[in-house]
Amino acid sequence: xxxxxxxxxxxxxxxxxxxxxxxxxxxxxxxxxxxxxxxxxxxxxxxxx
Length: 49
What we know:
Blueprint: H1 3-48
């Protein structure tokens, strides 16, 4: 393989890894936010009783 092709594949690989990382972080953040809202709702319900 030529040097240009190797360099291009490395750059594309790093870019894909970065995109997967961003996707994982955004999914994790949404899950934490959802759990936080559910926890606040359950606390509010307990306090209102």
